[in-house]
Amino acid sequence: MEEKKKFKLVSSKKTRYLLPNILTLAGVCLGISSIKFSIDGNFSLAVTLILFAAILDALDGRVARLIKGTSEFGKELDSLTDFVSFGIAPAFILYFWELNKYGKLGWAITLIYSVCCVLRLARFNLTKIEDSAEWKNNFFEGIPSPAGGLLVLMPLIYELANLNYELEIKQFTPYLTVLIAILLVSKIPTLALKKISISPKATVFLLLGAGIVFIALLFYTLETLLIFGLIYLISIPVSIIMYKKQNNKLEKISDDNHEDIL
Q1: Residue 257: what pLDDT?
Q2: Any idea where the domains of the chain sit in the sequence?
Q3: Least confident of 55-64, 74-83, 248-257
């Protein structure tokens, strides 16, 4: 008597690929929803959804590597999600909030940002790092799209935070949008922190720091985003210095080895 085959939506060997892709799809839903809420004028919720999309984007890749669920499909899906959530959604939010006041120029700036984001993602997918330059995995070329999506929203976040500093930051929105677009496609090294090892002794302090950040985001979401945005901008010159030092060090070692061979 033949044994009945059990119906399976996916192979048992493939189930580990589902969770990272579900997180990725949730991110794209958040990005699209943020556009909808920006059209409705609910910019606070729109910014919050972009933040959640960025958190999911940070998690899906790490979860995939942790459970060995990485795949070419997941990589392509992640890039498409990043383009929607951090290339299109933030640009549309800014357009409905401020850039539409500049007419055709505002729309052109919106398109420039989105085009730069998709170019940045295409270059990232094609970038291959040799084993001899493994240290470069700790750096991105240009700023990553999630960081760009949040940085470009800083004028809006400042307005929503209602900080009484009497600074007219809104008028800098077009210039900041173009600047972030250029940084996306630039080759400026920025910290990725993918291969940073953490001492077991420092784990408790890391968890404490993560808890403090979570609490700050929970109760002071907009203010915390502003602080992290400023910290990230300040870290860019630091990243350049670190990259150059590491690169010069390895070039010197390579030259010394070449001289020894000769």
Answers
A1: 60
A2: 86-261
A3: 248-257
- 89-121 per-position pLDDT tens digit: 999 999 999 999 999 999 999 999 999 999 998
Tens of pLDDT, residue by residue over 130-185, are 655 565 677 888 899 999 999 999 999 999 988 777 788 889 999 999 999 999 99
How far is it, in rounded angstroms, from Cα 91 to Cα 224? Answer: 21
- Joined tokens for residue 224: 């915390």
